[in-house]
Structure formats: C-alpha cells, structure tokens
C-alpha cells in the first residue's frame, strides 16, 4: 500500500485547478443506466472510486469508455444483477438500485456494509422505493427488489440525521420513469443532488424543485442520451483552502464554486483566514493570528461532514479551544488520535471533539483511516515541522485526483512512496 512522505513547514503558494466532483459523478454514472442511448460526461475526476463504478457499469453489461476525463457510457443491453463483491466494496454503488428498478423493473444488488465513519444504514432508500411500489426482500446479503409497475407517490425522506444524499438520488432515479407524480419531502439539497437533477432533466426527465427540500417528479416514458459537465468538487476545493491556510501560504483555487462553499468559507473567515473572490477564482491566504471556531456538521447548506476532519487539522494550529460537533456520522473522529501523534491536543466526548490548539505539531508516522481523515493528516503533515509519513493513502486516491501532484505544484515537499 502506497504512503505519502511529507517534509512539513513549506507554505503553499500558486494556483490549483479544482477537479470534477466525486460525489456528483457517482450517481450521475448510475443514471446512465436509465437510457439505452449514449451519455457523455465531462470533467470526470480520475479517481479509484470512478474507475470502480466503471467496472460496476461494465459488469451490468454497459459499454464504458473513460479516458481519464471524459466518460462515455452506452447501457443498451443491461442485466439487473450487479456483481456482489464489486458493489459491496463501494457504498456509493447503492445508487444503481433506483435506475435498475426504473429501467428493468427488478434489481439484485449486495447490501452495502457499514464503514469506519459510522453504521450507514439504507432504510430510507428502501422506504422511498417501497413508497413507489417496490417489493423488497433482503436475503443472504442481497437486496432483491422488484417493481412490475412503479407509481408516483408522496415520499418523506427525512431521517434521524436529516435528509439522505444517495437515498434522495435513488428515489429520484426510480421516480423519473414511474407512472404519475412523485413528491419527495425532506429531499437532500446538496449541490451534487442538483447536478444529478440537471443531468436527468437534460435526458428528458421532469423534475422540479432542485436544491430545495421538496422535489416534484413527473414520470416520463423514456429518457435519452445526454452530454454533461460535472460540477467542481466543493470538498476538494475546501480541502485545498484549508491546506493553504494551515501552511501559512496563499493559494488561488481555479474553477471553485464559492456558492457551493458558503459554510466552509464563512468558518475560515471566522478563524481569521483571508478569502477573496475574483471572477472564477477564489484566493485563500493565511491568518495573521488564527482563531479557534466551533462547528457543527449539518446537511447542506450547513457545514459539511466531509470537511470536519480537515478543519480539525487547522484548529490544531489555532491557539485556544475549538469544539467540532459531528451530527451526520457518529464515528467520524478516527483522525483525532492520529493528529495527536503529531502533537495535537484533542479530546473526543460523545459527538464532539474538543481541540486545544496552538501546540506545535511535529512530524510522525500516521495511518489514514478514511478519505477525509487522510486529507486531514496530509494537511497536518504540511503544517508540522519535520517528516510525516501518511500510510494507506489508497483512501485518498478514492476521492482526490492526483492530490500529491497538485500539492507539489503548490510547493509542498510531498512524495508518494510505492507500497511495500
Ligand atoms: N441515513 C439513514 N438511513 C439511510 C441513509 C442515511 O439513517 O437510509 C443517515 C446516515 O447514517 C447519516 C445521514 O443519514 O447519518 C446522512 O447520510 P447520507 O445518506 O446523506 O450519506 P450518503 O448519501 O451515504 C453521501 C456522500 C458522503 C457524505 C454524505 C453526507 C457519496 C458517494 N457519499 O453519503 O461522502 O459524507 O453524503 O453529505 O455521495 C465522502 O465523500 O467522504 C463521503 C463520505
């Protein structure tokens, strides 16, 4: 397994191009199963999760061509049974369920497992699909779903922690070809869901209310091929913004969408980080004196759970006490103990991490546990003095396109060490 070797203490300076969004493209890839015609998707990030999803689509019978940026899918002849092991290994692949049901009226997919950031149930996905008339049976790790006729219905998708992103995607994709009108209440409002809706509407779907908690979907008979450009990755942009601030440098983020980054930029400014918006670029500098901030993760447009770990790394550098409260995924604090290896002072109490910042960080060997935790360790390694080795960076490769190359261009002293 590869690792990153980082010599810390260099401020990041220069420009970085933001890649296409991982969490937008994965459901969009699933949506290509809704038509027999060709779909062309541009600004697709070259990530291991994307390559994995390509394999899942191929295993269902779709013709898939990915050149590292443009993805072409033609799902003319597909089957309703996905490869058990492929689907089980990537949680995002659960969103093939809705399109398979809509197109073939049946689907057999493996139940996604829990993961290191929390239990991650799919009860809301199944509830929504049942509302549309799907019969669901769970047997030997498989979800067997059949829906001879999908009919529009009223679906409430709010859960314990608010709306569900992929659950909303699944129910939308089942409803686009259903008979009649579906109204989803408490739908996820994330920009990635809006991008999926834009993609589906361009295919001929009739979905109103994108970006609001109420979606109205009028079923259509068939959908056609489409060309689409994926939105920029707001979490990648946010990660580089935090890295710039933590390193004491100044970075221009090209192609970032400030309108998708409201809560993140607001918190960075509260922490004293200077941010300038000019044309299509966002410039993030470093604070004269970094201030601690309190944050609670929330569904969009609140502060994203996918930025909590990176902000924690920054708060380790801010003299004073910050409280980071996780309301989306209960166990998403695996990075705290690894940050402590670098000298951070963090206590986790229930859903909150209490960070006593301002102690000097110094390099150490650390272990990445999930995608965003890994990003936090890289940020801390860049800010720390001395050498940090981040093991298991395959987590990072799932969701950041050539992260070490982008960081190196900004002046970071970082290198990939091929796995032993
Ligand atoms: N939930 C339920 N029941 C369900 C589904 C979700 O109780 O049926 C709960 C979850 O346990 C959690 C909350 O609802 O407490 C929100 O989970 P959600 O379903 O929105 O998460 P997801 O759709 O599985 C996506 C992203 C995650 C991101 C979350 C929240 C993709 C592929 N994944 O997951 O991304 O953290 O939304 O914004 O889009 C990441 O990129 O690192 C990542 C984990």
Outline of this structure?
The chain is α+β, with helices and mostly antiparallel strands and 420 residues long. 32% of the residues lie in helices and 24% in strands. The protein folds into 2 domains: 3-19 and 232-417, UDP-n-acetylglucosamine1-carboxyvinyl-transferase, Chain; 22-229, Enolpyruvate transferase domain (UDP-n-acetylglucosamine1-carboxyvinyl-transferase, Chain).
- Major beta sheet, specifics? 4 strands, mixed
Structural category is: alpha+beta
Rg value: 21 Å
Which small-molecule species are bound to the chains here? uridine-diphosphate-2(N-acetylglucosaminyl) butyric acid
Account of the protein in words:
- With 420 residues, the protein is of the alpha+beta class.
- The chain has two domains: 3-19 and 232-417, UDP-n-acetylglucosamine1-carboxyvinyl-transferase, Chain (Alpha-beta prism), CATH 3.65.10.10; 22-229, Alpha-beta prism (UDP-n-acetylglucosamine1-carboxyvinyl-transferase, Chain).
- It is built from 14 helices and 23 strands.
- It has helices at 22-31, 48-59, 84-89, 97-104, 123-131, 165-175, 191-203, 234-247, 262-270, 308-315, 334-341, 371-383, 394-399, 403-409, and strands at 3-7, 13-17, 38-42, 63-66, 71-74, 106-110, 135-139, 142-146, 154-156, 181-185, 206-208, 215-218, 226-229, 250-254, 275-278, 281-284, 295-296, 320-325, 345-349, 352-357, 365-367, 387-391, 413-417.
- The strands form six sheets. A four-stranded mixed beta sheet has the order 21-22-1-23, covered by helices on one side.
- Helix 6 (165-175) links the parallel strand 9 (154-156) and strand 10.
- The longest helix is centred in the middle third of the chain and has 14 residues, at 234-247.
- The mean pLDDT is 96.
- The structure holds uridine-diphosphate-2(N-acetylglucosaminyl) butyric acid.
- Uridine-diphosphate-2(N-acetylglucosaminyl) butyric acid is lined by residues 23, 26, 91-92, 118, 120-125, 159-161, 164-167, 305-306, 328-329, 371-372, 399.
